[in-house]
Amino acid sequence: MDAPRTPGDWSYRGGMTRSAATYGAGGGDPVFTLACERAAGRITLVRAGAVSDPVPMRVLTETATRLLDATPSDGDVAVTLSARDPLLDAMAFSKGRFAVEVSGLATLYLPSWTEVSRVIEDCR
């Protein structure tokens, strides 16, 4: 909770079948994305950064910590959760920020802004 926030801002894109919240510095590629697939009722967490094999992704919030099995995906690292997974609520309502750790990549300290909640609600 005391670590400085990763530089950047959230942005939201909505659509009929998908929505996404992306986080990154202005003009650059996003470092983190929450993407909702409405029909499937699932949300994919995508951390920018190439890995060659599956790796653990740890998400730390004010009220929960979870170790997830992430896999390489188009030059990034991704894990998919049910839209009803309680970890998503912990991310959305974490006091100030939550962290995303992936072995071999810098830890992200992301603010719990409304874009996070909006994508989760889109999928429910």
Using brief descriptors, characterize the structure shown:
124 residues, mainly beta
The fraction of residues in strands falls at over 45%
Tally of helical runs = 2
* Helix and strand sequence: EEEEEEEHEEH
Strand order of the largest sheet: 1-2-3-4-7-6-5-8-9
Low-confidence stretches: none
Count of β-strands: 9
What is the SS-derived class? Answer: mainly beta
Tell me what you see in this structure:
This protein has helices spanning about 85-90, 115-120; strands at about 10-15, 20-25, 30-35, 40-50, 55-60, 65-75, 75-80, 95-100, 110. By secondary structure, it is mainly beta. It has one domain (about 10-120). It has a nine-stranded antiparallel β-sheet, covered by helices on one side. Strand 2 (about 20-25) and strand 3 (about 30-35) form a beta hairpin. Helix 1 (about 85-90) runs antiparallel to helix 2 (about 115-120). The mean pLDDT is about 95.
Q: What's this, in brief?
A:
It contains two helices and nine strands; from the N terminus they run βββββββαββα. It is mainly β.
